[in-house]
Write a structure and sequence with these properties.
The protein is α/β, with parallel strands linked by helices. The protein contains 10 helices and 12 strands. The strands form 3 sheets. The protein has a 6-stranded mixed β-sheet with strand order 5-6-7-3-8-9, sandwiched between helices. Strands 2-1-4 form a 3-stranded antiparallel β-sheet, with no helix packed on it. The chain has a 3-stranded antiparallel β-sheet with strand order 10-12-11. Helix 6 links the parallel strand 6 and strand 7.
């Protein structure tokens, strides 16, 4: 559904952010996109959705060139940006204005999502809401669009703890086998239970693009008293439980993925990680 092949992109001709980048994403996954500030996460999302245009290479999104911004493609992509645009409209007026762009928009579903976030009145004006309330309205809207591709940039920013739990619940309810969901976030703990595939971007390069299952097959995440008998350690840190380590899973242990630890391990051992997952390269 999403294919970027050998693409180049830069905000200036002298310095490319992405050079010869290749990425393929398929239906039925909730992808977590992770990287340091400035790694290119938001730019990558904009390239996929046709808000930025590659300078070289090829891009296909739903079998269309995203740079052409054809209505057939755009009506199947819902994008929630990190910065929320708040028009001086009531919630119901916003829906009346923008829902027609999305043929699968479900008004009943939209109200259900609002109710879940405890926003019961569609007469409220969006620009008068708190940032957290605006976020809830826009999350509800993009979910109700029922698009084939759903892109969210830092969706849990400004949500309180109960709202984050609600977000996870509603997200789980809309994840289907025919949809791609991409969530870019620094709030790893908020989305740990949702994400089933990991993309790690660093300095404009894809360091890792693997399913959670493939990651735990190759890597183990453990808490141990000491590391003397553990070989091929990629990352370790101390916490109240003992030493937390990420290491090559040579013994085929079943352990639970920890995205934060994985990210730290990847940042410290980029070449080693790439060799583990792509030994032929």
């Amino acid at each position: 559904m999403i294919q970027l092949k050998n693409i180049d992109f830069g905000y200036s001709k002298k310095r490319l952010l992405f050079e010869n980048l290749t990425l393929e994403l398929s239906r039925g996954h909730i992808y977590g996109l992770f990287g340091k500030n400035g790694a290119g996460k938001t730019t990558l999302l904009k390239l996929i959705s046709g808000l930025r245009f590659i300078s070289n290479g090829s891009a296909l999104v739903l079998n269309e060139n995203p740079a052409l911004r054809k209505p057939k493609m755009l009506q199947q992509i819902a994008f929630l940006p990190e910065e929320i645009y708040a028009p001086a409209l009531k919630v119901k007026e916003f829906v009346t204005a923008y829902a027609p762009f999305y043929p699968n928009f479900n008004h009943e579903q939209f109200q259900q999502f609002l109710d879940a976030f405890e926003i019961f009145d569609q007469e409220l004006k969006i620009d008068k809401m708190s940032f957290g309330q605006k976020k809830k309205v826009m999350i509800s809207f993009v979910l109700a669009c029922n698009t084939q591709i759903l892109i969210m940039d830092e969706p849990t920013n400004a949500l309180d703890i109960p709202s984050k739990a609600i977000f996870r619940k509603v997200m789980a309810s809309v994840a289907t086998d025919d949809r791609i969901v991409i969530i870019s976030t620094h709030q790893v703990r908020d989305l740990h239970s949702l994400i089933d595939a990991i993309i790690i971007l660093d300095s404009g390069k894809i360091i890792l693009n693997e399913s959670a299952e493939a990651i735990t097959e190759k890597l183990a995440f453990e808490v141990v008293e000491n590391t003397e008998n553990i070989a091929h350690i990629l990352y370790e840190e101390e916490n109240v439980r003992g030493k937390v380590v990420v290491h090559e899973n040579t013994a085929q242990k079943e352990t639970k993925l920890d995205i934060e630890l994985l990210f730290n391990a990847v940042m410290l051992n980029k070449e080693k990680i790439q060799h583990i997952f792509n030994p032929k390269k």
